[in-house]
Amino acid sequence: MAGKKRAKPSVEFRNTQLADALQVQDMAALAFALRHGPTVVPLMTAGARDGGEVWTYRNPESGEIALLLFSDAAHKPEALPPGVALQSPTWLRAFLGAHSEITTVFFDIAGPHPMQATPADVIAALDA
User: What is the pLDDT of residues 54-109, one digit of tens each?
Assistant: First the structure.
C-alpha cells in the first residue's frame, strides 16, 4: 500500500547469555557469551558511521583506565553518558588489542551480578 511505512525492527541492547553467565559468576560461560554474542558498550558520543567514541573510566588517583561493558543497556548506571552501542566479539577483540592502556574490564559494574577481568583474560576468552 502506498503511504505506509514499514516499522523498523527494534534492536535489543542486551546479551542474554552474558547476563546468565554473570548471574552464576561462571568465567567459562562468560567467555562463551563474549565469543558468541554482542556486548553493550557505553558511548561518550554517538557517531553514525563508527558507533561513536567509547566511554572509559579513568581512576583519578591511580590514572588506571577501565572499560565498562554491560549485558543489558538497562544495567548501565544513569551517571554514565546516555549513548550505547551493541558491539560484536570481533570489535571487542580489536578494541582491547588497540588500547593497551586499559587495565581492567568490568561487566555490569552496578549489578545485578558484576564481574571483573583483565584485558588479557578477555582477549584470551575471545581468542579461544
Answer: 999 999 999 999 999 999 999 999 999 989 999 999 999 999 999 999 999 999 99
Which H or E run contains 104? strand 102-107
CB neighbours (10 Å) of residue 114? 14
Amino acid at 61: E
**What's the pTM value of the predicted model, to 2 decimals?**
0.87
In this structure, is residue 28 part of a structural domain?
yes
Ramachandran area for residue 76 (φ above 0: left; ψ -120 to 50: alpha; else beta):
beta
Q: Give the whole-angstrom CA distance, residue 24 versus residue 126.
A: 20
Number of domains in the chain: 1
Q: Evaluate whether residue 8 is within a structural domain.
A: no
Residue 74 belongs to domain spanning: 16-127
DSSP 14: B
CB 68 within 8 A of CB 57: yes
Q: What CA–CA distance (Å, rounded) separates 9 from 97?
A: 32
Q: What letter does residue 88 receive in the DSSP assignment?
A: -
- Helix, strand, coil abundance in the chain, percent, nearest 5: 30, 25, 40
